[in-house]
Design a protein that fits this description.
This protein is mainly beta. It contains no helices and 11 strands. The model has no long low-confidence stretch (mean pLDDT 95).
């Protein structure tokens, strides 16, 4: 069974950094792009970043470009999201997701498995 487990969320002040992790179980990591999305109550889920397999290409939402970095460790089956310069508008529940193919996509329907999410709170 595919399982994605996020960690690393928390409460930080504006300008601080956090690194989110997403551990994938079993043989669920290889040959799949991975992505991060985020959601706040009452809003649609928003694409944040994605990375191809094995990790040569990345894509970012304009709102996080230059501040967030997505990466993956294919030996540890772990996806990361380094978030620097956090802003109050970055506060959300962050979800990692497994892409249906090796190439990253920016739409939710291109992902087939999702984690439970990790909460990020940013105080101004």
């Amino acid at each position: 069974q595919v399982q994605l487990v996020e960690s690393g969320g928390g409460t930080v002040a504006a300008g601080d950094s956090l690194r989110l992790s997403c551990r994938a179980s079993g043989d669920t990591f290889s040959w799949h792009a991975m992505g991060w999305f985020r959601q706040t109550p009452g809003k649609e889920g928003e694409f944040v970043a994605a990375i191809s397999y094995p990790g040569t290409r990345t894509s970012y939402a304009n709102s996080v470009k230059g501040r967030f970095t997505i990466s993956r460790d294919n030996i540890k089956n772990t996806l990361y999201l380094q978030m620097n310069g956090l802003k109050p508008e970055d506060a959300a529940t962050y979800y990692c997701a497994r892409g249906k193919s090796v190439s990253f996509e920016r739409t939710k329907t291109d992902y087939d498995y999702w984690g439970q999410g990790t909460q990020v709170t940013v105080s101004s």
